[in-house]
Amino acid sequence: MEGDLWEWEEYDARAQDEYDRGAFDEALQTLHEGLALHPGSPELWVSLGYTQLAREAYAWAREAFVRALGLEEDHEEALVGLGDVLLKLGERARAFRCFGRVLELGFGSDPDLLLAMARALYREELYERAVNLYRMALGAAEAAAGASTDHVPSDERIRVGADGVPTAGDVTVAEAAAELAYALYQMDGAERALPLLEGALARHPDHHEARVFYGNLLYDRGDYERALEEFERVPPDRMWDPLAVWRAVELLRGFRGLPPDADAIEPLMRQLEILTEEPAPEERLLAEIEAAADPGSAGASVPDRNQLDLFVLERGRPEARNPGVHVVRARDGKLYAGDWAAIVQAMRDDSTDPNVSIFDYMRDAARVVRSLTGMSVPDDDPERFLRASARAGILRIER
């Protein structure tokens, strides 16, 4: 490549294409080449910052964003990126100031910047602040899409597009609405999340992530037929939540009466195998070595792949890391899916005393099993408790 003939825009465009393909190292090389020729380009420094952020090289990302702001003090994308990095590094007050400066500069009507800030806050579990920015993003996206809905609360504004075909504006509105729903759910706002998800899907019917989450909420409300309808509208290879996949299988067998080897169930089971596949021993060893070498990792530990958040933080996004899923059938035929602790918690919630702690529930249940069967059941560990209960014939572990 004759790099000396390229303007900074060409380097930036090429790096953006590489970034979008996930080729971060290639993007990094392109940006370094561009900056060697155009060191005064804040845009290249910003792109470098986001590329380093994607590589989780937070110190280098921070330096890149600072360099960009040194060239252009109020560069809005650099401020957003620096705020994101500062949140990762635990410097919340400085991060909030960066985001506040973006709003002071008049970018409160830019849905993309608002969504970027809201997502950064959401990832750090700062849900109240995230909700505020998601609401602003939703309003801005609707305004940009031409929605005249200023007279109603933003949580109720989503409407079906005129021709049913989502425009770019519709997609942005749907993303903002769905992500606002995710944040509200984290704040015990499931009832407020439902209409937002319905509106998002009306705008963008192929928003599979939102549809899976919507199906999960319907399932939790006991609306099983509607939940199955939503799950069936998502291609199996686009269902990234193992719990949703299990629920779809359960409902297909329960409501449709399908046998385990039915054609409709086979692709779901194949997808579940992909999502729950354990890493090869050498991959796990490499992960442990990398974690131990990363001083920023908490305790240099590897995430336990048997930990399943009942609703994965990104709500089924591909970034979620293959959690393990277990399925337990109670004596009344009800299925429970999730990690061992989540299953015990769900069983406790369905018990006559859902307010006790999980350990109190296991202790009391173990006493009942012992009195009925004479078998001792451990009450200090969810997995041991469930496996012993299965040996006693109280339940069946199907996976």
Please name the fourth-level CATH homologous superfamily of the domain at 1-107: Tetratricopeptide repeat domain
Can you write the helix and strand succession as a string? HHHHHHHHHHHHHHHEEHHHE
Q: Which strands sit side by side, in order, in the main sheet?
A: 2-1-3
User: What proportion of the residues form beta strands (DSSP E)?
Assistant: under 5%
Count of DSSP E strands? Answer: 3
How far from one another are the termini? 54 Å
CATH topology of the domain at 1-107: Serine Threonine Protein Phosphatase 5, Tetratricopeptide repeat
Structural class: mainly alpha
Kindly describe this structure.
The chain has 399 residues and is mostly helical. The chain is 60% helix and 3% strand. It has helices spanning 8-20, 24-37, 42-54, 58-71, 76-88, 92-104, 111-123, 127-144, 168-186, 190-203, 208-220, 224-232, 242-255, 266-276, 281-293, 340-349, 358-373, 382-391, and strands spanning 326-330, 335-338, 395-397. A 3-stranded antiparallel beta sheet has the order 2-1-3, sandwiched between helices. Helix 5 packs antiparallel against helix 6, helix 7 (111-123) runs parallel beside helix 9 and helix 12 (224-232) packs across helix 13 (242-255). The longest helix is centred in the middle third of the chain and has 19 residues, at 168-186.
